[in-house]
Sequence to fold (149 residues):
Amino acid sequence: MKIILLLLTAFFYNTDGLYAQNMSIDTFKWLAGKWKYAGRERYEAWKVAADGNSLTAQTYRIKDGDTTIVEKISIEKREGIFYYVADVPQNNKPVAYKITQADKSGFSCENTAHDFPTHIKYTITSDGKAEAVISGGGRDIKFQLELQR
Fold:
């Protein structure tokens, strides 16, 4: 009985390896397209890479007719694990967040060594709408996104 309990505990406590093996890039393809931030002239434009093995995005804003790229993002697999990689001007190098959960309704990722955010979560809220939450250090910032058709 103790062995079964120990095995169940280990399975539920550390599912990263099993989960990562079962995940595919298809899990994230719902992101493909241009998403507009609610109430702002800010967008995330996602596309599936030509090889089909990753997704890339640019976050940009439009102000007074000028477009400014504010972030480059990718979702990519490294050594069997998926990462959300954010490249912003204020960081010296891109920051990789390990994707810890993903399914047809969204995904979560984390990098607790980063200052802010330490956690990022995208959730599909309805057809053509999603919510992105960046958090860490007791702060949560939510963004509502709508797919542009």
